Write a sequence for this structure.
């Protein structure tokens, strides 16, 4: 924005000091609550042995993150950006479809 007169300068100064918009919280589509728990979901081998405190080895394609509403326990899919050639895109979509079919992902 070019400054042609005092009003332009004043407007630009006002814009610089204006408070940014507050971020809008995600709301549960089922109960409208705003608090969620981050849930790490993955596939693990049936035959495993670990030392207490050690992480379990995951099977490919790795883990997915869902949000669980702390009020009604509904699972919510976070906004996910996957590239067209991302190797995790197909397994992630299959995982979401499986949740929807089973009824556990009713809010997804």
């Amino acid at each position: 924005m070019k400054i042609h007169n005092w009003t332009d300068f004043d407007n630009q100064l006002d814009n610089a000091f204006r408070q940014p918009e507050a971020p809008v919280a995600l709301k549960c589509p089922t109960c409208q609550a705003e608090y969620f728990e981050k849930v790490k979901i993955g596939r693990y081998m049936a035959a495993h042995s670990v030392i207490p405190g050690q992480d379990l080895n995951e099977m490919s394609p790795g883990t997915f993150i869902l949000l669980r509403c702390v009020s009604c326990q509904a699972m919510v899919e976070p906004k996910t950006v996957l590239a067209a050639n991302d190797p995790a895109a197909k397994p992630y979509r299959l995982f979401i479809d499986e949740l929807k079919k089973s009824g556990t992902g009713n809010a997804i």
Notes: The beta strands are 36-44, 58-69, 75-76. The longest strand covers residues 58-69. The two ends are 43 Å apart (CA to CA).
